[in-house]
Amino acid sequence: MFLNLPISLGKKITISSLFLICTLFSEPFLAPNDPFIRHEIRMLGDEGGLKSIQNTWPIDLGGLSAMQTESDFKLPSSLLDNLISSESNSGWSPISTTISFADDRVTTRGFGPEPRSSFATNTSISWMNDRFAGKLSINAFYGMPLDWKGRKDEGFALDGSYIAARLGNWSTSFGQRERWWGPGWDGSLILSTNARPIPAISIDRRVPEPFETKWFSWIGPWSFHSFIGQMEDERTVPNPYVWGIRGEVCPSIIEGLEIGFSRIMQLGGHGYPSNFSIWVDAFLSQDNFNAQESGKATEPGNQLAGFDFRWKLLDLPFALYGQVAGEDENNFFPEALFFLYGAESWKYLGNSTIRFFAEYVDLTSYWWSGDPRTRNVTYIHGRYKDGYRYYGRPVGHWADSDSQIFTLGGLLQKEDGVGWGVTLRTGDLNEDGESLNSLSNRKSTQYLSFDLFNSRQYPRYGLCAHTSIGWESLDVGDGNKDDSLSAFLSLTRTF
Length: 495
Hints:
By secondary structure, the protein is mainly beta. It contains seven helices and 26 strands. The strands form four sheets. It has an 18-stranded antiparallel beta barrel. The protein has a two-stranded antiparallel sheet with strand order 1-3. Strands 2-11 form a two-stranded antiparallel ribbon. A hairpin with a 4-residue loop joins strand 24 (445-458) and strand 25 (463-475). The longest helix is centred in the first third of the chain and has 12 residues, at 35-46. The protein is globular.
């Protein structure tokens, strides 16, 4: 089949029953939308049951199974045999319908199913055979808040739809697939699920197998991903292209280390060239010089590049992770750097597994350089006035430009597949009050929020429920403070 999943895998790896209902059956990929599934995959890797790339999503299920290692470790829940049986069947999946209700607060969107609108529906169906797979996902969004330009992104969309083909150890796809690049739990500097997925064509290495030659075997498991997409037309520069490239390795010489390298190029668009030479210049980091020499706007465009890592320390249930990205290339090195770093720990608690993490993001760039010119540059560009945003939301971290946010979070995954999670966030949005920031435009804002969320399934009814309650405070000073309660409910029915 497309996945090449062995039935014996179910005896060695067990993943949450949330797969069974909340994920469509004839799909080869795991989308970055469930923190509990991610937690359990991490548990497998950290306890020796999996040697694979885990910081790049979506994850190919065939690649996940192929990189399993011999281990006695088992997760508390054990329904993967049923999942394998369903995923290995070619043909059509059952129809899945989701209805979501939320308040109008859509400030944060970490690794999870947080809403983008106060009311949304989704109906999807997928199909798969030995070499091809596809998914049709029809969405309707209503009750969207106004973005920083006074627009409402409402109506119908095909977010989540795609067609894919397997070519040996590579897969190619076209569609609107959500992506997450990096080890962070609350956000990613380069590519996250904060904004809607950009329509794109992509190529991905399916199984991150090491090189067989002794000269390169020390690199360990490695992956490569690239996509080319196009942004919306309701922008200062309509329909610019986005080109993303990412590679990851797990070097065998350092146990427990996962390293990733990412680049994003924003180029072309209405009124600007997008010929082959422009793409070559962008790839070679030849930014800005053409415009400076000719006085014409012929430079390739906007770029971000970054490095990330996650390192599990020795045999301890503890890992450090971090991500650094930069804007404004200068001699092949970014001038304005911004950072994300964190720590996480995990353990058994009775028949359950838990994970805690602490994460800090600094999007100001100033503290690194000490140069005032590096303020107000993150996700911002002189040509592309809308910046590195898609339909008003940052494609990178949700906090947007010139922000500093500290997050504490925890996950509890029970034996019966019920998951509980909590996040506490505090910090400053748009620190100096001058930057273009989608959450706090031209205002320095103190931010504080608390969220408690739950995921559970009801197999008898083919139903999966995601719920969340929380509180949020935005304080812009001068007595202008907005405190609000929040709630979210999402029901998925598989027919």
